[in-house]
Write a structure and sequence with these properties.
2 domains, disordered C terminus, alpha+beta, single chain, five-stranded antiparallel β-sheet, two-stranded antiparallel ribbon
Length: 173
């Protein structure tokens, strides 16, 4: 399983399997995280590894269709000059395992991203801060107008959380 073409993207070559980065992910189906070195000469500029999750027992056909709809919507939005900078990951359902009658799939791991759970957890802390800034429910607007600086700071922090990976992309899982 090394020195081959990626099953998710034929434009990506997978180099040697990086055993140190491979692991079983702790969840109900125990998917396997696989990592390969990127053999491309300029890999250090983009991504030094290609990572894929192998899942056995999850039916990801509906996920694949949902992601295809997201790609279509992204193209429609871009045609109307709405670029949301979406990076949509690849899913490849492969069919049934003949021994156990379970579906197997590959899922692309997006590099340098944060999950919606990470964003939600970070915004949870900001929501507490926002309540402090706005004050009691009786006078929220007056407090916000009399002291707009903390709200501007909160907006700045929220912006940093959403774009935490630095490339300005939103990631949907």
């Amino acid at each position: 399983m090394q020195n081959m073409i990626s099953p998710l993207d034929i434009s990506n070559s997978l180099g040697a399997l990086n055993i140190e980065l491979c692991k079983v992910i702790g969840s109900a189906k125990q998917p396997l995280r696989l990592a390969w070195t990127n053999p491309e000469p300029l890999a250090r500029l983009h991504s030094e590894t290609h990572q894929i999750i192998f899942k056995n027992g999850d039916d990801l056909r509906q996920d694949m269709l949902t992601l295809q709809v997201m790609r279509i919507m992204d193209a429609l939005w871009k045609s109307q000059d709405y670029d949301l900078c979406l990076s949509i990951y690849e899913v490849l359902p492969m069919g049934r395992n003949h021994l156990q009658k379970e579906l197997a799939s590959y899922v692309e791991i997006m590099q340098n991203m944060i999950s919606p759970l990470d964003i939600s957890n970070s915004l949870g802390a900001l929501n507490i801060e926002l309540c402090k800034v706005i004050g009691s429910a009786k006078q929220p607007l007056r407090l916000a107008w009399t002291n707009p600086e903390p709200l501007a700071r909160l907006h700045s922090e929220t912006h940093q959380i959403i774009f935490k990976n630095g490339d300005g992309r939103y990631y949907f899982l």
